[in-house]
Amino acid sequence: MAPSLLAADFSRLEEQVAGVEAAGAEVLHLDVMDGHFVPNISFGIPVIASLRKRSRMFFDAHLMIVDPMRYAEPFVKAGCDHLTFHIETVEAPDRVIEHFRSLGVSVGVSLNPTTPVESIEAIVDNVDMVLVMSVWPGFGGQTFIAEVLPKVEILRERLASHQRLEIDGGIDVDTVAEAARAGADVLVAGSAVFGKPDPVGAMKELHRLAQEAVKAGGGRVEPHAAKPSGD
């Protein structure tokens, strides 16, 4: 499970992040929005830099921005361990991957709900993680788009054992099991964790449901599976 900061109470960020970390969360998902690629603005470098001083979690930055090359270095300097860019925003994804790696972080590529797997075929072997959006990026609390699950299944077969497959959007107690069964091994949850009265309990319940679903289905289960390789 990778709790998403977007859904946290921003008046209590340190408290809420510390709570899920103490409960065993290893990855903090950071949804960075620029108001151009997506119709919303979330948070940026100062917030991440402040949290970095208070947390040892793996900072997984999802850059929903039109120019990931330009801002990659500042995000890394702020403390991000991993950067994911959207394939829809770049013309030369190989150059983006090379630049991100030169900064010392692991690299992910993200696909919007209707973006086909074929769009990343040329570069998929060069990334540490693929992120499948199961909602349209830009806002938290949306309804899970189940039609992306066949894409998750295809990618699970396509990716190597060291590569992670992340899913983001609408993950809650009703959808986490099917996302895990399809092959996602990094499950981002925002409202279903930080939007609950007991975020820690909610996160643990989601993790339990995902683990049980994968074990029952004979799928992939690994300890500490949330961290992309290269961290």
Report on the structure:
By secondary structure, this protein is an alpha/beta fold. It has a single domain (2-217), classed as TIM Barrel (Alpha-Beta Barrel), CATH 3.20.20. The protein contains 7 helices and 8 strands; from the N terminus they run E-H-E-H-E-H-E-H-E-E-H-E-H-E-H. It has helices spanning 13-22, 45-52, 68-78, 93-102, 149-158, 176-182, 199-217, and strands at 2-3, 27-33, 58-64, 82-86, 106-111, 129-133, 164-168, 186-189. Helix 2 runs parallel beside helix 3 and helix 6 crosses helix 7 (199-217). The chain is globular.
Concise account of the structure shown:
The protein is an alpha/beta fold and about 230 residues long. It has helices at about 15-20, 45-50, 70-80, 95-100, 150-160, 175-180, 200-215, and strands at about 1-5, 25-35, 60-65, 80-85, 105-110, 130-135, 165-170, 185-190.
Question: What pattern of helices and strands is seen along the backbone?
Answer: EHEHEHEHEEHEHEH
> How would you state the average pLDDT, rounded?
92
- Radius of gyration from CA coordinates: 16 Å
Largest sheet descriptor: 8 strands, parallel
Overall SS class? alpha/beta
CATH topology: TIM Barrel
Supply the CATH superfamily name: Aldolase class I
- How do the strands line up in the largest sheet? 1-8-7-6-5-4-3-2
Overall structural domain count: 1
Proportion of helical residues:
25-40%
Characteristic key phrases:
single chain; 231 residues; alpha/beta; TIM Barrel; eight-stranded parallel beta sheet; 18% strand; disordered C terminus
